[in-house]
């Protein structure tokens, strides 16, 4: 008959190992809190130990009150704005007209005073700019309907037209690629070219 001897630690049940792990975590947390209390605040070692004990034994009263006092110190009076503008970023997937019919009255009831309409390639550009309009762009009649619904709900419409950066929808096209600030990036327009001014002016005139 043979007997196999094992180290006592190897025989410890899972529950005992878990308790040891929890004890180690508590000790580490205590040491971290003690170090923070002595480094961030001028406390004696005895005061630091007492502070850590308070945190560990009564966290709601200590931490919560500290948090509340910090919040109170940051509290600012409410800011009143005369204008409350809602931004519509329409590139890629423009909403159907029925959406505007429903959402504009709701926005007005919620206190909105205006709309910032970022059309980009959803605007029905014509003439030399016709290539800027996407295949699913709004028609002129669609734009007229959107503006009419906005007026009916007393919402000021502010068209947002990119004039220097975020011009990928135009500069990605071959016919305008020479106007890029950086040849391999269609994001920004080169402001030192006369043709750049002509493009921006034409966009502003149409929108």
UniProtKB/TrEMBL annotation:
List the molecular function annotations (GO) for this entry: hexosaminidase activity
* Superkingdom per UniProt: Eukaryota
Coiled-coil spans in chain: none
What keywords sit in the KW lines? Membrane, Transmembrane, Transmembrane helix
Entry keyword Ligase: no
- In the UniProt record, does the keyword Aminoacyl-tRNA synthetase occur? no
Q: Per the UniProt record, which residue ranges are transmembrane?
A: 18-35
Question: Which PANTHER family does this one have?
Answer: BCDNA.GH04120
Protein name in the entry:
Putative hexosaminidase ovary overexpressed
Which organism was this protein described from? Rhipicephalus microplus (Cattle tick)
């Amino acid at each position: 008959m043979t007997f196999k001897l094992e180290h006592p630690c190897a025989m410890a049940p899972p529950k005992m190992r878990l308790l040891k792990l929890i004890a180690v975590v508590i000790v580490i947390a205590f040491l971290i809190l003690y170090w923070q209390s002595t480094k961030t605040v001028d406390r004696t070692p005895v005061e630091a130990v007492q502070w850590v004990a308070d945190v560990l034994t009564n966290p709601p009263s200590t931490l919560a009150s500290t948090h509340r006092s910090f919040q109170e110190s940051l509290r600012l009076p409410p800011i009143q704005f005369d204008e409350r503008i809602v931004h519509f970023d329409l590139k890629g997937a423009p909403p159907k007209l029925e959406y505007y019919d429903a959402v504009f009255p709701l926005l007005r009831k919620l206190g909105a005073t205006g709309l910032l309409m970022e059309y980009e390639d959803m605007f029905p550009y014509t003439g030399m700019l016709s290539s800027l309009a996407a295949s699913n762009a709004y028609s002129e009649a669609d734009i007229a309907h959107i503006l009419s619904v906005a007026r009916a709900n007393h919402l000021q419409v502010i068209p947002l037209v990119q004039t220097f950066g975020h011009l990928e929808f135009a500069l990605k096209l071959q016919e305008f690629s020479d106007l890029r600030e950086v040849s391999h990036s269609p994001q920004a327009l080169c402001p030192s070219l006369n043709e750049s001014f002509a493009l921006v002016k034409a966009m502003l005139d149409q929108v």
